[in-house]
Amino acid sequence: MKLSEAQNKHSYVVANVLPCEQKVQLEAMGFVHDEKIDVLAKSMLNKTLLICVKGSTVAIKKSVLNNILVNECAL
Amino acid sequence: MKVFGFLSKLTNKSCHKKNRYKQLKGNYSSETNIIFCGNANTGKSTVFNAVAGANAHIGNWLGVTVDVEAKQKIKNSVKYNYFDLPGTASLTPTSPDEQAAVDFLNANKNYTVVNVCDINNLRRNLFLTLELLEQGYKVCLLLNFTKGFFKKGGKLDVNKLSSVLGVPVVIFNGKKTELFDGKSVHMTSCADAYIRHKRVEEILNASGYAAPTKAYGTSKLDKVLLNKFFAVPCFFVCMALMFFLTFVLVPWIFETPINALISLLEKISSAAFYNNVILESLKVILNFLPQIITILLCINVLENSGYISRLAFVFEDVFECLGLNGKSIFPILMSLGCATVATPFCKGIADKNTRLKTASILSLFPCSAKLPIIVLLLSAISSRMLVFYVALIYALSICVALVFALLLNKKYKSKPSNLMLEFPALRVPKFTGIIKNIFDNLKSLLSRIFCVILVVNIILYCLNALNVISALTVVPLAILSIFGFNAKAVEALVSGIVGKELIATGLAGVTLTQIFSSSTLILFLIFALFYTPCFSTTGLFAEQFGFKQTAKILGYQFLYAYAITCLFALILIPKNFVKFIIALTVIALIMLAIKLIKTFALKGKTHCNKKMCNKCKQNCCKPN
């Protein structure tokens, strides 16, 4: 599933980052295969997610998260 | 553009001061070049200031440093050239400030690179370190924010880390550290980011790394500040507190001492020149200096606490509807202090059109220079309800700025927002950092006041004495007379193009109720707030976007301010209803004419001349 469809306060594991303009930046941030990520919060209009990756918190637009494929994992 | 550059330098002596890379005079036998680079918000500028004795602007949010800063020092016959770069997550840039950092690194591969890392975030920061080593740079790793890390039980064997990486690792202790010894290590390049991240994990495991703190952005306070429902009310509470401090508490505290100081200054001389030029300028500035300092203090507290990055997340969705970006909140908040200081911070926004729109609206927000004119004019209407009217004007300015962004969005379409923003830690701001920033801002403000305002007032005094001033204001008077502005008011507006404080000093010593009716006063205030940015802001805008774009935006802003004033005039002076409708129609026709001229001029023509085309980035002759 796409990370943009993720539920709030759930954990996921990155499966793949699709080729896109932000691929290099996303990978530098830590969105690589098998990386565990936590969805912390959603913005007011649900267009931006707050995500914990590699021990830091990042705010990312849903349109960017469409390019990240994830699998669910237990909390 | 050269004229704007010169004028911006004249009016903006030390505002957002760059360390000029002048050649230091002195004897030295050797030269060492040291670059401070790393991820955003790791403390590079703080280290640069401590080591090089520099004065770079610091703050607890991503994107404080937007250009390469340089400083030189001669010690023990060695000349040290230090360079502070904007933050970058990797050697593949995504915004102009990151591009500046990467370009500098690529151009100076033989320089020693001090890679400043946040020890709490090594998992992310070492990604760039490995990229630098793979590219063959001489690297020295500097670990920052170590005090809190070890105090809270964090673990790291620094010597082990150094031996595993193969480069020197230094802990920054806040003091003036000496020369950094960089080392280049042979490291195979990773094509895959996954492999590089794996390498980072192996290095950290071998060094016994364990971070004690939770990720930034997950504290109890963050749960309130970032909550869907509480975030915006929290922001308005902060703004209301800032407003209360600036316009209620501080004026009450400083009223008596300021009046005593002004009485003292009045006794110095009774000469007409001193009274009419120097004293009137000083009175206006002194009356508002405590409020200006309070606004700067509040903005610096927000800047250094880490709250500003959270605001980017809170306002991202709303700003996207207006064609802006969550990162636009950084320069917008800075512009409440000074639009000139805020304009360079737009370089942190990746998309060109979003950057342009953000920079265009900054001068519409009420800055510290507009404070005297706002309070001066509103006090003439009602001193009892002053705070309420000032709050209304601030709210109006914000609405006007955001509507202008919406209108510009029709012409300058932004790419869909791709916000990716890391959160810094929420910290209690350091008192020394805040005082330093306020001192820098005040230095620039006071130098602008005494150099520019005094000079312009002297020039206006002389022009008045020679009866030349009326000739200069003929055209502006003809355009603005429909609002009931007289020659004195127009003269103040013309001088306000240089700096907004000049509008207040231009009206100083004049009984406002004699030259304005209450309706005309309000219209004058509205027009003065929005009609044009000051010289220094215009100069910095032209540096970023070019002369042609600057001229367009200045034209749009003037027409917009005129239209807003006409709309208010329709309500306030209904007897001249027809005049204002005609004026609004003329503005609409001018905009339509510009659009039609552009359409007919480009019809059938290509948008390039077989050279490299900016629009399609290739040699082409595609029809428009």
Notes on the structure:
- The complex is a heterodimer of chains A (75) and B (624).
- Chain A is mainly beta and 75 residues long.
- Chain A is 15% helix and 43% strand.
- Chain A contains 2 helices and 5 strands, in the order βαβββαβ.
- A 5-stranded antiparallel sheet of chain A has the order 4-3-2-1-5.
- The longest helix of chain A has 7 residues, at 23-29.
- Chain A starts with 10 loop residues before the first strand and ends with a strand.
- The mean pLDDT of chain A is 86.
- Chain B has 624 residues and is an alpha/beta fold.
- Chain B contains 26 helices and 7 strands.
- Chain B has helices at 2-11, 44-52, 96-107, 122-134, 146-151, 158-165, 193-206, 220-225, 231-266, 272-305, 307-321, 329-335, 339-342, 352-361, 371-381, 386-411, 431-465, 469-472, 474-480, 487-495, 501-507, 512-515, 518-530, 535-545, 547-572, 577-602, and strands spanning 30-37, 69-75, 78-84, 112-118, 138-144, 169-171, 420-422.
- In chain B, a hairpin with a 2-residue loop joins strand 2 and strand 3 (78-84).
- In chain B, helix 24 packs across helix 25 (547-572).
- Chain B is globular and about 80 Å long.
- In chain B, 44% of the residues are buried.
- The model of chain B is unreliable at 1-21 (pLDDT under 50).
- The interface between A and B is large, with 34 and 39 residues.
- Strand 4 (56-61) of chain A pairs antiparallel with strand 7 of chain B, so a sheet runs across the interface.
Fold blueprint:
The complex is a heterodimer of chains A (about 80) and B (about 625).
Chain A: E1 11-17, H1 23-29, E2 36-42, E3 48-53, E4 56-61, H2 62-65, E5 68-73
Antiparallel strand pairs in A: 1-2, 1-5, 2-3, 3-4
Chain B: H1 2-11, E1 30-37, H2 44-52, E2 69-75, E3 78-84, H3 96-107, E4 112-118, H4 122-134, E5 138-144, H5 146-151, H6 158-165, E6 169-171, H7 193-206, H8 220-225, H9 231-266, H10 272-305, H11 307-321, H12 329-335, H13 339-342, H14 352-361, H15 371-381, H16 386-411, E7 420-422, H17 431-465, H18 469-472, H19 474-480, H20 487-495, H21 501-507, H22 512-515, H23 518-530, H24 535-545, H25 547-572, H26 577-602
Parallel strand pairs in B: 1-3, 1-4, 4-5, 5-6
Antiparallel strand pairs in B: 2-3
Helix pairs in contact in B: 1-24, 4-7, 9-10, 10-17, 10-21, 14-16, 15-16, 15-23, 17-21, 20-21, 23-25, 24-25, 25-26
